[in-house]
Write a structure and sequence with these properties.
transmembrane, transmembrane helix, membrane
């Protein structure tokens, strides 16, 4: 009987924490992605897909 009371208390506590956390998270402002470096013009324009080329040294240990 004691185990059932403790499990019920743990369940109610977890439910309360999850509910309160959900309310707090819903009130946070939405995240916005901004570039780290200001760019004068955008890479992609409507009708043209942005092409990004990544270059780097190949790891010599991998064949």
């Amino acid at each position: 009987m004691n185990i059932q009371k403790h499990m019920e208390a743990i369940f109610i506590t977890a439910l309360a924490i999850a509910g309160a956390g959900s309310i707090v998270i819903d009130r946070l402002p939405d995240a916005r992605a901004t570039p780290a470096v200001p760019v004068a013009n955008s890479i992609g324009i409507p009708g043209h897909m942005a092409v990004i080329i990544v270059r780097g040294k190949r790891d010599a240990r991998r064949a």
